[in-house]
Amino acid sequence: MPNTPQSPPHRIAVLALDGVYPFELGIPRRVFASAGDRYELATCTVDGRPVRSDADFTIAVEHGPELLRTADTVVVPPFDLALATDRPAPGVAEALALIRPGTRLISICTGAFVLAAAGLLDGRPATTHWALADHFRRLFPRVLLDPDVLFVDDGDILTSAGAASGVDLCLHVLRRDHGTAVANHAARLCVVPPWRDGGQAQYIEHPVPAAGASGTAATRDWALARLHLPLTLAELAGHAAMSTRTFARRFHDETGQSPGRWLTQQRVALARQLLEATDLTVDQIAGRVGFANAVSLRQHLHAAIGVSPLAYRRTFTGKAFAGTA
Question: Which intervals hold domain HTH araC/xylS-type (predicted)?
Answer without folding.
Answer: 217-315
